[in-house]
Amino acid sequence: MAHDGPGSEAEAALDAAFRHARAYLRTLPERRVDAEQSPARLAAILGAALSDDGEPAADVVGRLIAAGEIGVTPMSGPRFFSFVIGGAHPAGIAADWLAATWDQNVGLYGPTPLAATAEVIASRWVLDLLRLPASTAIGFVTGATMANFTGLAAARHALLARHGWDVEAKGLYGAPEIEVVLGADAHSTLFAGLRYLGLGSERVHRVATDANGAMSAQGLAERVASLHGKPILVCAQAGQINTGACDPFGPIADACAAHEAWLHIDGAFGLWAQASDAMRHLTAGVERADSWAVDAHKWLNTPYDCGFAIVRDPAAITGAVSIHASYLQASEEERNPSHFTPELSRRARGFAVYATLAALGRQGVRETVERCCALARRMRDALCAEPGVECLNDVALNQAIFRFGDDDALTQAVADAVTKSGVAYLHTAQWRGRTVMRFSVSNWSTREADIDMTAAAVLRAFRALRR
Ligand SMILES: *Cc1c(COP(=O)(O)O)cnc(C)c1O
User: Fold this and answer.
1) Residue 129 Cα to ligand 1 middle (Å)
2) 203 CA distance to ligand 1 centroid (A)?
3) Binning pLDDT at 50, 70 and 90, where does residue 247 land?
4) Ligand 1 probe mutation, 148, 185, 189, most atoms within 8 A of CB
5) What does the alpha-carbon distance between residue 84 and residue 398 come to, in Å, rounded to a whole number?
6) Is the pLDDT of residue 300 over 80?
7) pLDDT band for position 325 (cuts 50, 70, 90)
8) Is residue 259 classed as helix, strand or coil in its secondary structure?
9) Nearest protein Cα to ligand 1, atom 12
10) Which atom of ligand 1 is nearest to the CA of 241?
11) What is the pLDDT of residue 412?
């Protein structure tokens, strides 16, 4: 297929996608927030056989659009509350189209100066909003899973270097053992990072957490003191996935400093509390850590996939993940993006971050964070006014967990009924051994009317289902 001008097959495919994208986004707030679960129908539209000769691109795109009408969940709309995911802001979507169009392979500064420069500017803005030291390094990774992995890799590098061990060269065989300490309500992806790095997901020290899921500062201090002299990696959390709880970072940082422990923060969404004067008491002291993982595609509302691996000592992140070869001619003066991520070839994520931040502005980011938290409290107030509905967490951030009639099956049935109605998307999880309905507000476009409509649907379902 050649790119041969107006009316060509290539342009017809691009036009079809563009027209559909605009119509989809325009109607997003009114769409049913679910998708038809019919693999057979979807496969019938997509076609099972790969053709020998290929097909016109516009036909292929047309089929995807048709399948999208039944197979795509409007996750980025204002009433998808079941994960903490946000929804892509239009400025970020447009910048992502440019990233796909320009198709830059963002490894080195030389061939991709615009993509590299957008990352440098966006890095500065992110550090400023998150109130982290300006000299800190950021890798633009796929999300908080890889941000955790990268932060932990930097920790492994630095902790073992301090003990005279070059882990990148020698691996972990014969290395001093790293003692990993984390809260009992840490996120599953932290354990994945530990697994990938050979640190093991089970040989960790778990510190007790409170009813809301925040780590006990005293428990942490005692555990770290008992490990004095060993390489210690402490993982704390800003924003527990169910409750939004933030660990007590000040006391945790004190304990880490006293025992030369590396402090890593999983702040996938919760770290954004730093962007608001009204919320940042929740994350007080978080700037004292050595590394941080934070998502862009959740509360910052960029398109997937995008997150930041942030490391105070740039030499620790580059020492852990940079890749070198004679054909990869790195700039000596400018920042080479691939030196800060585990990936070599990747798309230019920095465009969407730059565009989303520039479009929202400092005020817009702050307002998004504060509005989402206020909307979570609005939902709590609306639901808890009903006898039999309980909120199980302290709604300090953007997360709320609810229980109906103190009954697992009823709680599940209420969430299922609302999701089936298409009004809002809700899921359950287990909290302290009980089924709860999760409610996460992180979308830039969610407003009070969305909360009120959802609360009404939830209460309608509860009243119909309770005996
Ligand atoms: C979502 C989340 C992650 C994982 O992030 P991805 O963007 O899905 O890779 C890690 N930690 C916490 C606390 C999260 O909420």
Assistant:
1) 19
2) 22
3) very high
4) 189
5) 9
6) yes
7) confident
8) coil
9) 268
10) 15
11) 98
Helix, strand, coil shares of the chain, percent, nearest 5, are 45, 15, 40
| Residue from 142, 196, 241 whose mutation best tests the ligand 1 pocket (most atoms within 8 A of CB) | 241
Among 83, 187, 398, which is best to mutate for testing ligand 1, by the most ligand atoms less than 8 A from CB? 187
Tokens of 213: 């899921």
Structure tokens at 246: 């933030």
Cα 147 to ligand 1 centroid, rounded to whole Å? 9
Maximum separation of any 2 CA atoms in the chain, in Å:
72
- Average pLDDT, integer, range 123-132: 98
pLDDT for residue 3: 61
Write the DSSP symbol of residue 278. T
Residue 4: pLDDT over 90: no
3-state secondary structure 167-217: HHHHCCCCCCCCEEEEECCCCHHHHHHHHHCCCCCCCCEEECECCCCCECH
240 CA closest ligand 1 atom index: 13
Q: How far is the CA of 305 from the centre of ligand 1 (A)?
A: 12
Residue 263 predicted with pLDDT over 80: yes
CB 446, CB 78: distance < 8 Å? yes
How far, in Å, is the centroid of ligand 1 from the Cα of 138?
17
B/e letters for 276-306, b = 16+ CB within 10 Å, e = fewer, are beebbebbebbbbbbbbbbbbbbbbbbbbbb
| Cα 188 to Cα 175: distance, rounded to the nearest angstrom | 26
The pair of three-digit structure tokens given for residue 199, joined into one six-digit string: 């640190």
Nearest to 178 by CA among 236, 234, 226: 234
Q: Which pLDDT value is given to residue 6?
A: 77
Q: pLDDT tens digits, residue range 182-195?
A: 999 999 999 999 99
Domains parsed from the chain with CATH numbers: 94-356 (3.40.640.10)
Ligand 1 pocket at CB < 6 A: 84, 143-145, 187, 189, 239, 241, 266, 268-269, 295, 307
Average pLDDT over residues 330-357: 95
The percent of residues above 90 in pLDDT, for the chain, comes to 95
Q: 225-253 in b/e burial notation, b at 16+ Cβ within 10 A?
A: eebeebbbbbbbbbbbbbbbbbbbbebbb
Band of the pLDDT at 36, cuts 50, 70, 90?
A: confident
Give the position, in ligand 1's atom list, of the atom nearest the Cα of 238: 13
